[in-house]
Amino acid sequence: MAETRKASRYVVPFAVAGVAAATIGLVPALAASGDPDLPEITAQQLIEKIAASDTQTLSGTFKVSTDLGLPSVAGLADSFAGEAARGASGGAPSTDPTEMLTKLVSGTHTLRVAADGPDKQKLTILDGSDEYSLIHNGDDVWAYDSKSNEVFHEKGDASDRPAGEKGEKGEQDGLPGTPKELADEVLKEAGDTTSITVGGTATVAGRDAYQLVIKPKQSGSTVESIKIAVDAKTGTPLKFTLASVEGGKPVLDAGFTKVDFGKPSASTFDFKAPKGAKVTEGTGEGGPAEHGKSPEDVEKDLEKEFGGPGGLGGLFGGAVPGAAADGEGMNVIGEGWTAIATFDTGAKAPKTDEAPKEVQGFLDSLGDEVNGKFGSGTVFKTKIVNALMTDDGKVYVGAVTKQALVDAANAAK
């Protein structure tokens, strides 16, 4: 019953640098020797280079590999297959970007990307012989699923421009105006929790690149490092790698295997619905007309199905912020990489042995029972984000180790 959101919000150029710059500290360091041999650059200069990048046109192939350390959800998926089939006639079409893009959170996927300024972008997810494409061409936004032969079309306008995008005067509200100002802002806000260095050079998709290496200085974080390969010529991020302290495969390894910064052909962004395809026209309100449900209607359906705000209450026994009227608001303990969000749900933790067999097995594989001064509870874990739910309904969550969550719960007792 998930609401189909505007496809135009998902068809945007990759902007890894902006995300990274909001969460990192800055420690100047000279680039180490490596191959290719590039001029020395400090970390601050490289941050400025990324910020100054004005790449408007590109095309290429992008590979995304994700490993959150989660168990197989095949059995869990099967348990909901019947319900999904029963609701298919009234649910979102298979072209729903929300549903399709969530597939990228596990496994390895190949994408084709193309961009020609802010008004023309295309993203295609390849799955064997099947393709799923999102195309933004001027006022038109298309989503096409070759497997189901379904098309979603929507007309957009300037009012759909994402928050923070440059306005008529070319200014961004609340953001630094120059690369130097951005680097200075990062220095000011980051504090002493992070180390960032230039860790040598690399070749990515045939391009010479600098390696920006970001590491927490604090102990207790699940993040081992973040590496961003930055094109030496254009300043465009080419690859992003997130590694966990648990080791093994990276949690996220996403980068170009082929890239061309030339202007793509105009025909790249043309789209015509294939013969026999089912075409759904958008309402302009975030969902297709055939679906015919407002965001409020969707939320009510989810509450009816699962209980609680947004439909999450029934899945987690009310263990979400606001799921109980007497629950307390969210607080943040600590800072930087070891910050922990905590809130009181006002409800006792659910008993997993009362859940369906498939769901119970999945939850058991995710959770570790823990005890401390706070009492007892369960830590639900991934390679990056962990959450402790105590038996009396308090929740502690962050990109921190299991022990850090237990220590936080003990200290709050």
Write up what this structure looks like.
19% of the residues lie in helices and 31% in strands. Strand 3 and strand 4 form a beta hairpin. The two termini are 40 Å apart. It has helices at residues 16-21, 43-52, 74-86, 97-101, 179-190, 295-306, 357-366, 402-412, and strands at 57-66, 107-116, 120-127, 130-137, 140-145, 150-155, 194-204, 207-216, 223-231, 237-244, 252-260, 278-281, 331-333, 340-344, 367-372, 375-381, 386-390, 394-398. The strands form two sheets. It has a twelve-stranded mixed β-sheet with strand order 7-8-9-10-11-1-2-3-4-5-6-12, with helices on one face. A six-stranded antiparallel β-sheet has the order 13-14-18-17-16-15. The chain has two domains: 7-280, Lipoprotein localisation LolA/LolB/LppX (outer membrane lipoprotein receptor (LolB), chain A), CATH 2.50.20.10; 295-412, TATA-Binding Protein. With 413 residues, it is of the alpha+beta class. It has eight helices and 18 strands.
Short description:
19% of the residues lie in helices and 31% in strands.
List the helices and strands and how they pair.
Elements: H1 16-21, H2 43-52, E1 57-66, H3 74-86, H4 97-101, E2 107-116, E3 120-127, E4 130-137, E5 140-145, E6 150-155, H5 179-190, E7 194-204, E8 207-216, E9 223-231, E10 237-244, E11 252-260, E12 278-281, H6 295-306, E13 331-333, E14 340-344, H7 357-366, E15 367-372, E16 375-381, E17 386-390, E18 394-398, H8 402-412
Parallel strand pairs: 6-12
Antiparallel strand pairs: 1-2, 1-11, 2-3, 3-4, 4-5, 5-6, 7-8, 8-9, 9-10, 10-11, 13-14, 14-18, 15-16, 16-17, 17-18
Helix pairs in contact: 2-5
